[in-house]
Amino acid sequence: MGAFKAYDIRGVWGTDMNEEMVYKIGFFLPRLLDCKEILVGRDMRLSSDTIFEALAKGITDSGADVWTIGKSTTPMVYFATCYFKVGGSVQITASHNPKEYNGLKVSRTMAIPVGYDTGLADLEKMVATLPVTPVGKKGTIIEKDALTPYVEFQRKYVTDFSNLKLAVDCSNGMSSILVHKVLGDDNIIYINDHLDGSFPDHQPNPLEIKNCEHLMRVVHENHCDLGIIYDGDADRVNLVDEKGNYIFADITMAILGIEMLKGIKGGKVVADIRSSRSAVDYITNTLHGDVYLWKVGHVNAKAKIREIGAVYGGELAGHYYFRDFFNCDSAGFATLHLLPVFSQAKKEGKSASDLVKEIVKWATSGEINFRLEKKDEVIKALYDAYASKADKVLDFDGYRFDFKDWWFNVRKSNTEPYLRLVLEAKTPEEVARRVEEVKKYIHD
Fold first, then answer.
1. 145-177: burial string, b at 16+ Cβ within 10 Å, e else
2. How far apart are CA 302 and CA 297, in angstroms?
3. φ, ψ for residue 93, nearest 5 deg
4. Hey, which residues are catalytic here?
5. What are phi and psi of 320, to 5 degrees?
6. Contact 329, 389 (CB under 8 A)
7. How far apart are CA 331 and CA 176, in angstroms?
8. Which has the closest alpha carbon to 119: 182, 53, 30?
9. What is the pLDDT of residue 382?
10. Are residues 154 and 178 in contact, defined by beta-carbon separation less than 8 angstroms?
11. Out of 41, 141, 269, 277, which could bridge 72 as a Cys pair, Cβ 3.0 to 4.6 Å?
12. Is-above-0.85 flag for pTM?
């Protein structure tokens, strides 16, 4: 079944997923998680209510209860899983994907994610092969209020950022239900802050710079100090500086360290394999943190953070993970720990772009996607061409080849049909030259 991915279950609704499939997932989920209740949240996508009905029917037909928290962000589901101490949870969402997509993010007790290697493969097999026999005594659907305690939890971390003028783009996604309650309305310009699963302004994917153009204009025209943009389910956040320039997420991860590593020498930080040397060097040399490069994906990041006791972690996709948030990712939690950094910087006469300049010492290609069939053959060809010449090779998520004056990572996407390339060098000109050099190997 094509919808079962490395990190979640996701696909085009009506093509890769349908009501019968979702019903079966619900029916077998309590067996997989060995629990009698499943907490369920959902986003504002046009198919989410239909999916909830099918999923809830499957869960209750198995004899387990559904604890529904209604429309929610994905981090809110993680919080509620721990707050209500349930044995498992599901967020109905396709995160940053276009409107025709939807999916299910599954977690165990304490919001431990379930990936393909840690349960989704077993669930896929159950759905495909086992008969469905509803039990005599069905479960019930119980409504729970997670929004109130979640807002109270977040507001504990609100600091005085009144010297900042902000622009916030909710992408018509789930952050709309929270941001006004947590950040307030003073000196903040909100855009796209009502729920709309058709995403009328732009796709809910802030990784694509074209989706940030509205925010960039608002920042520039209103002389804002910072722009903030959330994805569809509010587990990712990206930033725009006061000039309207996009800030790459690994640089934001370094900025986040100014607050997260305050007073903690040698604090561990998990960064994905694509992370910039600029960010790694800044965290290591300036903030005295200890950076661990690791695999891409929330399932992998959360496991590594838990394993090594990291203070926080970050990914190029805009996910930021926190030990103090159940080792999970939260765009809101990240925002609340970034704002005091920018507020203090402004008090010292520094803008957002000034902070970025202090960190960025390398030029980057950003993530370049190639749609092709022979991904494994291409990766092998690149390994054969570059491994023996590299100063260091990391091999746990595709390959990262590090040289003195440049590096690149090539890996297969776990969620989309792409081969992904990230490359850095000392100058933009050298980046362009090296990208063209590497691209000679990338073809079917």
1. ebbeebeebbeebeeebeebbbbbbbbbbbbbb
2. 9
3. -170, 155
4. 95
5. -130, 130
6. no
7. 12
8. 30
9. 97
10. yes
11. 41
12. yes
